[in-house]
Amino acid sequence: MGGRAGLLIAPRILEDVSRGRDIILVTGTNGKTTTSAMLRAGWGGEVAGNDTGANMIQGHVAALCASNASRAVLETDESWMAVVISSLRPRVVVLLNLSRDQLDRANEVRRIALGWRECLAPETYGGVVVANAGDPLVVFAAQEARHVRWVDVPSSWRDDAASCPHCTRAITFGDGGWSCECGFAKPRVFSASVGATLEIGGESFEWGLALPGSFNEVNAALALTALAECGVEVATALTRLRTMTTVQGRYGLRRFGGRTLRLLLAKNPAGTAALLASLDPEDEVWIAINAQLADGRDPSWLYDVDFDNLKGHRVTCLGERRLDLATRLTYAGIDCAVVDEPESLQGEGSVTVVANYTAFREWMGRSTPC
């Protein structure tokens, strides 16, 4: 609300409050909040940021007005990039990924990629772009930027980049790369690469992250590459990242009666698939799906998720759209239970809770920190 009021009083307030600050801007469909938190932790000291996830200009205004820090890390909604870049003049822009998200609120992802490409063109933006080289849509967006630092990361989600954004022919994936007949292909020179270790700046580093999943290694690699552009030593920043155990309640452990819960936020096909791939074989899994405004009203995105990683797990369906979820899992051959009243799940043992936005907030309210 403060940001909205400020923009009404002074429409150019974002330019004014950002002037003289070193700013890293983070955008992408998945991982914005976590990567932004990694950047703030890795930078060290006082760093301003919209850590509540308010990632449109009103949230940026509020975050910058709330802090006098000379440095800021701001996550931004994918569709607001052009407006935000022209106002903030960030030192570094981090492009994480692009995939379909809330079907009733965001249309074709290629439109977003084209918007990124236009606002990152040399005549528009002169800073550094740190970009995911494994995502063809991100490469298309950053291809013409003046200073690009490509990060070679594994990419398992390809459904939104099946055809070339230049010529529409099919993109061929294989052997860690991708290419199109027209010549559009994965970059070959990288500033960093993700594998069993992190290779960056000619050095190799062991991961040792407390945050789970290979997707968080990807987030960390992009964050560390951006921080290196700001003069932060990789070893120092990585040591700080290793202390992170939770981000806005995600990944951390909480108590629900006699149970220990690990809360994971899932909001779209690509992000959900990555989270399910991170499950341990013995995990009991509760999946909670709502379809409120913040979630997107259309839950048909569930049919784009590969649920094979749930086979062999004890699965419970929760939330407003628990029956939609149970139907989808039944089609996928996943045995599951449907529970109307979460309080009936009281018991013992540990559980992984996978929930979308409003369901995640509900479970934060039902549980307490360990």
Reading off the top of the CATH hierarchy, the class of the largest domain is best stated as: Alpha Beta
C-alpha termini separation: 32 Å
Q: Enumerate the strands of the largest sheet in spatial order, edge to edge or round the barrel.
A: 2-3-1-4-5-6-9-10-11
Percent strand equals 15-25%
Query: Mean pLDDT, as a whole number?
Result: 93
Q: How many individual domains?
A: 2
Q: What overall form do the CA principal axes indicate? A: globular
CATH architecture annotation of the largest domain: 3-Layer(aba) Sandwich
The name CATH uses for the topology of the largest domain is UDP-N-acetylmuramoyl-L-alanine:D-glutamate ligase
Count of DSSP strands: 18
- Quaternary state of this entry equals single chain
Give a description of the structure:
This protein is of the alpha/beta class and 370 residues long. The chain has 2 domains: 2-241, Mur-like, catalytic domain (UDP-N-acetylmuramoyl-L-alanine:D-glutamate ligase), CATH 3.40.1190; 253-369, Protein-Tyrosine Phosphatase, Chain A, CATH 3.90.190. The protein has 12 helices and 18 strands. The protein has helices spanning 2-9, 13-18, 32-43, 57-65, 81-88, 109-119, 136-142, 214-229, 234-241, 269-277, 322-331, 357-366; strands spanning 22-27, 48-49, 71-75, 92-95, 128-132, 147-152, 172-174, 177-179, 192-194, 198-200, 203-205, 253-256, 259-265, 284-288, 314-318, 336-338, 349-355, 368-369. Strands 2-3-1-4-5-6-9-10-11 form a 9-stranded mixed beta sheet, sandwiched between helices. Strand 4, helix 6 (109-119) and strand 5 (128-132) form a beta-alpha-beta unit. Helix 1 (2-9) packs across helix 4 and helix 3 (32-43) crosses helix 9 (234-241). The protein is globular.
